[in-house]
What we know:
This protein is mainly beta. It has no helices and 17 strands. The chain has one domain.
Amino acid sequence: MSSACSIGRRIAVIAGATVVATLGHPISGLFTGTYAAPSGNTLAASALFQTYQSGSTWYLDVLLTNTSTDVTNLVPADTLTGLFFEFGSSVSPTLSPVQAVLPTGVKVWLDGSIVTNHGSNVGGEWAYKPGLSIGTLTGLHGIGSAGFGLFGPHDRFDTSQNLSGPDNPDGLQYGIIPTISSWPGSWNPKMIKEELISNAVLFTFETGSTELTVLPTGVWAQYGTDLDEPRFRLTGDEIPPEGIVPEPASFALAAGAFGLAVWRRRRR
């Protein structure tokens, strides 16, 4: 896969006040939402969008996080497996997938235990496709670890990789669950046999020499393996940049969009 050049930026969320510092002239936006699921659990997700420039090339990062703290009696349909977003009829950006990676500290679970020495690249299990239609919604950009009848094997971020199951995006594999320190015995037993990501995935797109100057006008979190399973809209606003803070160290902590968190990344 291609990779972006090195650039430092920092996002800090302290006591509910969000600060973004970065090189270039980016825009950033945080979208969040909650939903009372049929299982009785409260689902919660956030999607952080941030643009940045490296040399003459512009990029878009999307950090998708399962921010739920309700971890009792989860069922497969409570697993975060997709994100849909639109930019409105007046904007039609071209997003070229670069990578889907685990931020530092994010773990993969299987058989009730953390998968040791798991690599950060999960691009073989997540796909992207533009121009999607779901019900009355049209012109959607979609990211998914499940197929939903929308994504095929050639839509994956990394078509050379297959970490689990068929090449086609399928099932719960590598969906996102809340942050956990041990496997809850109350969860649906079908979930223990699936590789599941605890907390977040970071997706990177290239927009070429064109700067993306607007945030999405609509963002929806998708759960489960079917479009009839929970999907709800996330709401948010632009986060104004606060100066320039180069960050040479490679560090990423995806602890949700609330509380105290610092996110730094460096690309090679």
